[in-house]
User: Fold these one by one.
Assistant:
Number 1:
Amino acid sequence: MALKLWASSTANALKISCSGAKTPPLLPFSISRCFSSVLDGLKYTSSHEWVKNEGSVATIGITDHAQGHLGEVVFVELPEAASSVSKGGSFGAVESVKATSDVNSPVAGEVVEVNTKLTETPGLINSSPYEDGWMIKVRPSSPSELDSLMGPKEYTKFCEEEDAHH
Amino acid sequence: MILHRVRDGLPLMNLVSLRAVPILQQLHLEERLLRSSSDNWCIINDGTNRPNIVMGISGRPSELIDLKSVLRDRVPVIRRFSGGGTVIVDDGTIFVTFICNKDAIPGLQPYPHPLMSWTGQLYKDVLHGFGDFHLQENEIFLYYMYASLTVLDTYFTDYAIGSRKFGGNAQSITKNRWVHHTSFLWDYDIKNMEYLKIPSRAPKYRSARPHVEFLCRMTEYVPSRSTFIERTIASLGNHFSVKPIHQDRVIDPSNTLHSSSKLLTRQELEEAYSSLCEKLHIAAISV
């Protein structure tokens, strides 16, 4: 793989942990593959999904780290509303660069809403993985399952270690 | 914790050698092994029993195939569980599939590009000395959240000799395992290629060439099918301890558990054809 970089050493050093600001700062032209953002206020899995606890509903998607490694998402397969998901079980898939990749639910529960915009605009997962690219909303059957997930700092370290080992 | 089997310091890989097994049956086997086995597998199917069109998971028949001729000639159309493009396969196709645990190969990340790089290197070793084999670069734009501009990156995705493709590959990745499968054009019938449209999403190096100018036959470069197959198995032996398994231990046509690959029905194809004709304001001819 050939990667064209500009100010790559600076970009490599940057690891942003944001508070979910809607207008993030602009960044240099070209960014190293190592750069990915992790948001405060979310929980994370070792298979690179995020979950936002909104009380009775949990919103789920894949992380910036995941979408960066997967490449351009061209198709998203999502479950039907009212279907069940299990903790760690696959609920759908994304297609990128000739590969389908399972997406797994961080919690067990019932799907209450799916992001239908992803049918026409699957690239939202790349451009806005934590906001417009959300995938499903679930009513958790055991909210305490969220407690066992990684926080932002832990997930950032997990990604660094995963990338360092490869 | 799952303990994976190791022999002579290398992870075990079960090898299943098939001949002319129907491609839908092969895909069902692959998906079942991906989702319900914890072993590593290599499946080699030397040809398939009849011509079939095989689309990727997101394939739309109206965009990818010539529906009128496919309906007229009753060519089976399958939507497989992995990503990627559309191929037409027959007894001139050699299929090679790897199904592995994510930690089977040290240092290999279970994402599309690293997997394609690893398999590409394996086939480079297999085909060393037979033509100018290389992985064809495709330019793909990526972008990261918060970036104001895109990052240009190149990835190696197609198997080519010169600028002609001879193998199409695709992948499916789960939490702990992955599949990489390839259909190699040992030989092909030009007439069959006419069932396929030139895809709208095509790599730059294709340069809008029709199939006959874009593809090549391995038979023109490699002495025999068995040479290719034997060298593939030998190359695998550098990474795995390969153990042949008789197909009777794995083939089970009645077991469709975990099988999302589907044969499209004639009704589905006819509806796609009618919709396309409506969209183009042309009369649908009964086929």
Number 2:
Amino acid sequence: MAHLAVNDVRAKYGALEVLKGISFSIEKGEIAALVGPSGSGKSTVLRALMGLTPVTGGHVALAGDQLDYSNAKSVRAARDRMAIVFQQYNLFQNMTVMQNLTLAPLKIKRWPRAEVESEARRLLGLVGLGDKADAYSDQLSGGQQQRVALARALALKPQILLLDEVTSALDPELVNEVLDAVGKLAAEGMTMIIVSHEMAFVREVADKVIFMDGGQIVESGEPAALFDSPRTDRARDFFSKILRH
Amino acid sequence: MNYRFQFGVVWDNLDELFAGALLTFQLGVFAFAGGALIGLVCASLKTYGPWPVRLLVNAYVVFITNTPALIQIYFLYFGLPEVGVRWSNEACLLIGLTLNAGAYLTLILRAGFLSVRVTEIEAGQTLGMSLVQQIRYIIVPHIAKSIYPALANFFIVVLVMGTSVGALIGVDELTGQAINLSSVNYRWLEYFTVVAGMYVVLTFIASIGLALLGRWAFRVKAKIF
Ligand SMILES: Nc1ncnc2c1ncn2[C@@H]1O[C@H](COP(=O)(O)OP(=O)(O)OP(=O)(O)O)[C@@H](O)[C@H]1O
Ligand SMILES: [Mg+2]
């Protein structure tokens, strides 16, 4: 049984149907990459999974449990097991790095402080920011903020991590430090769904690439197969544009 | 120019000036606190309320911010008794200043509400925060930090400019006391020199207190001078 099974999920913004029946699944430890042109609905898939954009149809099952996004308890369960990092850094600006990481585990989970703090330090070490625990977000570079956001997402020990273009707001020289951190998580066996325009990175870490266009999945498969010999014209067209050097 | 300064009479009545300064300070604090409460309610209504309520709040804010505080207080002190509502001069001053501050604070607080970043709230939601937790940990601290400098400035405005209007309806705050005392012995220059100094000291203490509070509570990098 798949760890996350998404079946015919639909979402609307007002009258505009943005997701027109999305189905895919990922296994534990797998990394799926969502790619596709701007406006194709990649972010909306992740937002719908987190209960930020209303789901208007279809089913999502997480570790065998059906999620009902119209039910607050079920949404809480989804947020409990999945974590998301967005393109724009969205650290809590009135808190230190450490407080950003520990707030939810302490106040929402009520886990013991000593444990939470030592885990937070381990995560900061993992993303290479062991020395920034007491800094505020306005004292960090974009790349550092994004790595803190990664660590914060991990502090709740999610089963699945969703990453939405976590490097596209960064200056080119900062992209790699964030990708390195994501690569480390991949090596640790973290289950992830990533939206990314960094095709070289996707090719390296993803087990599965899902190509979307117009709110639908057009084609999916292993990165090498999809990038090098797409079966559909739309995918061929897209990859020929972005993979050309 | 052979005016001889005689500060002696001023020193003799220093007690009364201090009493006036204390009253000024109290009026400033209460008017500001009451205004902040009104501002909080009105800014919430203006941001989240239905349109008739928003219209009402707008009318209040436009009316108050486009008329002089003196007129508003005269309205309460000289106008209302005509229709049978009679309050003491101090009550008129305090109510007038509070309503006045409420309108300005509505504008300041509303700017704060609009400055909250949706992305931060979404981050809170996806971490599993309830609405109350979002308000407590994200929204309130953010608003407090972003509008603190404007609030601190406005407090000084209420403290100095607002309260001194009281002199014109016979409230014995600092300016009123100075007028009372100096009209007895005509030592205007001496009294107003000392009183100006007292205002400076009062605002100086308030500014430092506010700057330290801001740094400590909200990480506002306020310049103290
Ligand atoms: N808040 C919103 N209100 C209305 N329409 C929206 C909103 N957010 C997104 N959309 C629309 O939904 C569609 C899908 O948007 P989405 O952000 O999911 O695309 P995307 O694939 O992530 O694109 P990008 O690569 O530019 O981030 C687009 O047509 C977009 O205009
Ligand atoms: Mg997007």
